[in-house]
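User: Predict O-acetyl-ADP-ribose deacetylase's structure from this.
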Amino acid sequence: MNQVQTKIALTLGDITKQGDVEVIVNAANKSLLGGGGVDGAIHKAAGPQLLAECRQLNGCQTGQAKITGAYNLPNKYVIHTVGPIWNGGAHGEADLLAACYENSLRLAQKTGLKTIAFPAISTGIYRYPLEEASQIALATVQAFVKANPGAFELIKFVLFDQAALDCYYRKLGGLQVEL
Ligand code: AR6
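Assistant:
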């Protein structure tokens, strides 16, 4: 059988400018009505129709994901997921963050999408430490790829600064050795 391999890529940049993926993931809040950080950038680039569609969704629980159109973005869809607010790490944050990645991938797969880009969910305004968050992001995505071979062609992490990119590179190296 000719199984398509999933490429996992790391890139430095702005998630609103990733024309090579069908869907980008938004690090939203439970209202889904916009905010700062990557959420603000996505709404600004998508235009007001995105907010209009989000208003129909009745919010989203932490760890869950919902999908909308992408409007003026160079993608087909936006998946909105709500990361946990960091509160010391003993309040279920790790499971909730893993659920964001897992549920976003499931929703994309269910929609028939093969290419997806993630930001570093929860690592900005929600203060999740990057070391731990990047480990969870990469391990969750790699576990999904192993369990669903060929489901995705490209899973991309779009990191906003060099420190985040370096951190992901280090973690990805370690995980690949473990495989
Ligand atoms: N492209 C890629 N990554 C970005 C971009 C961008 N354009 N802008 C910021 N980042 P944050 P959170 C990075 O704060 O921590 C919002 O108000 C940023 O450097 O956007 O999940 C929501 O409405 C950081 O590494 O999301 C919620 O209220 C990462 O994206 C709350 O913030 C996530 O930072 C969610 O907080």
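The pocket of AR6 is lined by residues 14-16, 27-29, 35-39, 41, 83, 119-126, 158, 160, 164 (CB under 6 Å).
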